[in-house]
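An example makes the point: we print one protein in full, the chain in one-letter code, the fold tokenised, without further comment:
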Amino acid sequence: MSATTPAPGSDRSPAPWSTSSVLLVLGACVMAVALVCFVAAAVATSRGHDWPPEATVPVDGQPHQVAVSADREAFLWAEVGPEPSCAVTGEHAEVLELETTDGAYRRAAVGTEHVAIRSFRPTSSSVYVECVRTGEPYAVVFVEPVPRLPPFLANGDWLFVLPAGLALVATGLVLVATVLVARQRRRPAA
């Protein structure tokens, strides 16, 4: 009698796939998806944040006009380290209050990391930003609206959580399949 032929008197047809085989194949597929997600996340974060030219302000002690959204709070971003001294004025020369941030918002750029150093509430669709060096020779700061997402999501850290979670699930599926195979081999033949 072959392995695919049912035993005489048995009304069950043999299963073409055992549970352990299905779990093993499923685990391999989930691991492949995790690898693709990891590569996609690595490529997405490898270039860093792309600062638009209109958001760039030279640290030269001169006021520079920057377009902003009047209905959203904005951040001043600088390289991690000693912060430049900045002042922001509105379209009608009113001085805007700068609030210190907690440093939770960070952006990686090619070769550097930037942190949101100050926040302000614009009163119009453009502001004047003037920054001077206080230590390190900063070249520029950036002005950008405050992200609508919390820091963990806005910083892009979550991009690697999905592949890590998928890899964990795949590992679990392979372990369960291995345990099932080991249990089947331990059973005495009847």
In short: The chain is about 30% helix and 25% strand. The CA atoms of residues 24 and 175 lie 9 Å apart. Helices lie at 19-46, 151-154, 161-186.
